[in-house]
Every structure is written in structure tokens, then in C-alpha cells.
TrEMBL record:
Known partners and oligomeric status: Homodimer.
Entry-linked NCBIfam families: PRK09430.1 (NF006948)
Protein's gene: djlA
Highest taxon of source: Bacteria
Role noted for this protein: Regulatory DnaK co-chaperone. Direct interaction between DnaK and DjlA is needed for the induction of the wcaABCDE operon, involved in the synthesis of a colanic acid polysaccharide capsule, possibly through activation of the RcsB/RcsC phosphotransfer signaling pathway. The colanic acid capsule may help the bacterium survive conditions outside the host.
Places the protein is found: Cell inner membrane
Record membrane topology: Single-pass type III membrane protein
Main location: membrane
Protein name: Co-chaperone protein DjlA
InterPro entries xref list: DjlA (IPR023749), DjlA_DnaK_co-chaperone (IPR050817), DjlA_N (IPR007791), DnaJ_domain (IPR001623), J_dom_sf (IPR036869), TerB-like (IPR029024)
UniProt xrefs under PROSITE patterns: DNAJ_2 (PS50076)
């Protein structure tokens, strides 16, 4: 009942009688607990024109690769490592044919001397002003590009700070994300070392195995927490990060479907760190 009533009232305020009818229908779906059916039709996003969603996805796609190109050029020249990282990122996304050419074109445009990082990121911020999680993921992707050679140079860090500011984030939050990504990088590398160690032992090779390097402090850092974090704080941080990086939710807000893999991998890293902490 309350869903129909409130839906009708707000619908009338914003769209007169047509809005009231739409509001009544949406309220009806909630009142009947048809959340599953509501999600199947795309929720509120399903009532937004498909072209608008596609425009946001296209903007995210082109802006992301253009800014990546600009960051890669921040040290004066684009290194082979940055080129390989960008190519690997495109491969991870499954980009082929025209999609890959568009990504390469945007990356090249970002390297141009007349590319305005402020204009590009400000336009992006305006388009995604109400999509905090997408703006944060955008920044995390740029941090990932800068970190592709294992460290962030002073020039890259200064540029990333600018990007973060244009996106509307405080410097403290940028430093938090930078530290957390470094933790993800180290945790993932430690995991891979551990898997290699297990395979080595499985095949019967002799010799003392090297420690994998997985530690509680590294897992906590992936969740953005310190050594003193309690069990409840760990669970709260885990749930928050998983919500922020949920692939389906991000795609419905404007994340290009190709980039779902980025969100999936971050979710897997967060999940792995949490599982490790539950066992430790």
C-alpha cells in the first residue's frame, strides 16, 4: 500500500498524471514484493532510455583509455611496459576488432600534447556525478595503469592526484585507494607465488619451498584496514567493498560491459583477502 501511495505522490509531483501512473506501477511492484521481477526488467534503470545508458558507457570507455594514455605519457615518454599493460588490459576485457581499435585510438589521443586532462575528467565527473562507485572504479583503473611497472613515479602520482581532484575526491581518499591497490597487487602476487609453490610440490620437485608471502596484514590492507581491525570491522569493510565493485550493479549504472572483468577481478581479490582473514 505504502509503495503505491508514495509512488503515486512523487510521480505526480515530477510528472503530473503520467508520472503518477508510472509511480503507482512501480509502487505496486514493491508492495507485491516482486523485487525479482522488478530487477528482471532493469529496475529503475529499465525506464531510462537505452541510448542514455549507451552514451554513458561509451563515455566511460573512451575517457578511461584516453586518461590511461595521458598517465602513461606523464614521465615524458610512453614506456614499453605501459604499452604492454594497456594491451593486456584490452585483452583482459576481450576487446577485438573495432572495439579494440577504438580503445587504441582513445589511448593515443590521451598521449597527445594538446589533450586536456582537466576537461576530459571534468566532463566525465559531470556525467557520473551521482555514480560514486563508478567514479571510484575509474580512478582505481588509472592507479592500476600507473602501477603496471610495480611502482608509481612522482610524475604519475602528481597526475593521479589531479585526476582524483577533478573526480571530486579528497586527497586523503586518493592516498587510501593508492595504498589499497598496492596491497591488492602484493596480495595477488603472493597468491600466485603460493600456487606455484603448491604445483612445485605436487610434481615432486625437491628443495625447500619458498614462503608464499601471504600475511594477515596484507589481507587487511586489501580491505583498507589496519592491524587492530576487529572481526565486525573486517566484515563491514568486506561488504562495503563488494557492494562498490559488484559488476552487474556497475554495468546498470554505466560501466561498459567489456569492463565487467575489471570489477570481477577486484571482487575476487576482495573475496580472497576476506576468506584468508576468516581462516587466519
Amino acid at each position: 500500500m505504502w509503495g503505491k501511495l508514495l509512488g503515486t505522490m512523487f510521480g505526480f509531483l515530477f510528472g503530473r498524471w503520467l508520472g503518477a501512473i508510472l509511480g503507482f506501477y512501480l509502487g505496486h511492484l514493491f508492495d507485491k514484493s516482486l523485487r525479482q521481477d522488478f530487477d528482471k526488467v532493469g529496475g529503475f534503470q529499465g525506464f531510462i532510455k537505452g541510448d542514455e545508458l549507451h552514451e554513458r558507457q561509451a563515455l566511460f570507455f573512451s575517457s578511461c583509455f584516453a586518461v590511461m594514455g595521458h598517465i602513461a605519457k606523464s614521465n615524458g615518454r610512453v614506456s614499453e611496459i605501459h604499452i604492454q599493460a594497456a594491451s593486456a588490459f584490452m585483452t583482459e576485457m576481450g576487446l577485438q576488432g573495432e572495439d579494440r581499435k577504438e580503445a587504441q585510438h582513445a589511448f593515443t589521443a590521451g598521449k597527445s600534447s594538446d589533450f586536456s586532462i582537466k576537461e576530459a575528467v571534468t566532463d566525465f565527473k559531470e556525467a557520473f556525478a551521482r555514480r560514486y562507485d563508478l567514479r571510484q572504479l575509474f580512478l582505481e583503473i588509472q592507479i592500476q595503469m600507473a602501477f603496471c611497472d610495480g611502482h608509481v613515479s612522482d610524475a604519475e602520482k602528481a597526475l593521479l592526484k589531479q585526476v582524483s581532484k577533478y573526480l571530486g575526491f579528497a586527497e586523503t581518499h586518493f592516498l587510501f585507494l593508492l595504498k589499497r591497490y598496492q596491497a591488492e597487487f602484493e596480495f595477488r602476487r603472493a597468491q600466485q607465488a603460493g600456487k606455484s609453490q603448491q604445483q612445485h610440490q605436487h610434481h615432486g620437485h625437491q628443495g625447500a619451498p619458498q614462503p608464499s608471502g601471504l600475511t594477515r596484514s596484507k589481507a587487511l590492507a586489501v580491505l583498507g584496514l589496519g592491524e587492530s581491525a576487529s572481526a565486525s570491522e573486517i566484515k563491514k569493510a568486506y561488504r562495503k567493498l563488494m557492494s562498490q565493485h559488484h559488476p552487474d550493479k556497475l554495468v546498470s549504472q554505466g560501466l561498459p560491459t567489456h569492463m565487467m572483468e575489471v570489477a570481477k577481478r577486484k571482487s575476487q581479490d576482495i573475496q580472497s583477502a576476506y576468506e584468508y582473514l576468516k581462516k587466519s
